[in-house]
Specification:
Blueprint lengths: L11 H23 L5 H10 L8
Length: 57
């Protein structure tokens, strides 16, 4: 048990890249789960989001 202590290589840029990729993947997954596909609510929300105020009414 008297061996050398293990040297841990640190890579802050690599860690940041991994964290960003993980966060992006999680965000995309959450967006995909919120997006309704083929449901009645999906049809209603699609028509509601396509309305604009440019036509005046």
């Amino acid at each position: 048990m008297g061996g050398k202590p293990k040297v841990v290589q640190q890579d802050p840029e690599g860690d940041a890249r991994k964290a960003a990729e993980k966060a992006t993947a999680e965000a995309n997954t959450k967006k995909a789960m919120r997006r309704p596909t083929g449901s009645v609510l999906g049809g209603l929300s699609d028509s509601a989001t396509k309305k604009t105020t440019l036509g005046g009414g």
